[in-house]
What does this fold into?
Amino acid sequence: MRHEPNAGTELKISDLSRLTGVPVSTLRVWGERGLLTPRVTPAGYRIYNQDHVKQAADIKRLRTLQGLSIAAIKAALPGNDASGHANAVTSGNEPDANATNSVGARLRSLRQARKLTIREVANQTGIPQSVLASIERTSLGVQIPEGKTLASFYGVTLTSLMATPLTEHNKEVISSSDGGQVLPTLGKGLRIEQLATGRDMMDCQRWFIEPGVNSHGAYSHDGEEFVYVLFGEFKITVEETRVHHLRQGESIYFKSNWKHSWSNPGQTTTVLIWVNTPPSF
It folds into this structure.
């Protein structure tokens, strides 16, 4: 799903912490040291946007993997002026969580249609209230296992939740060489192109999985699926014990109701075709 430029999704410091895995206290220190420059409201609240997510992830990488000092990180980060102070991050192409077709708006609509509070959904799904509230507000940071849990809870598929529904006038889809409709992110380092789908047919998707990215746990659903590796490596574990390490040109077919988890164990981005039938992903 492609998003037009807009005013930007506003993130609280707790949202930024959830999306990056950086503690709130650390984010505050980075702000005080000039590494992150949020917008501050008259009431003193720090407001971030999606560009800050990437910026915080870059800082985390430089600190943990390369062991750079604060001063060295200031010099290394793009957008810093000569005095070493980070320039304010401006909005780019962030998804608008208030848009009718955004993931957050759809989840909010589904919850309200069932007259449930966020607390009640949290109690019934096991997903923390703070995560549910953040997803509804920002449409960001949905991982596959929690996305599948929410989709199943509301009686829809993850694909229908994430992608713009096809209408009666565009069910015949021809994908160009540029790719298909891009689904909103289901985690950093994962890109999914929706090549075709139909209510009574199948989901056809092309996945791009960066090195080290994984499914964050196992999940299952109805139907059958087929995966064909176009490039790179793909490791998939079925029913917790059957581990398959696929490489370019190899494929796997299995029942979707068998719990499965996956990862890219290689050093390059994995590209694969993933087909689900019926469209129950």
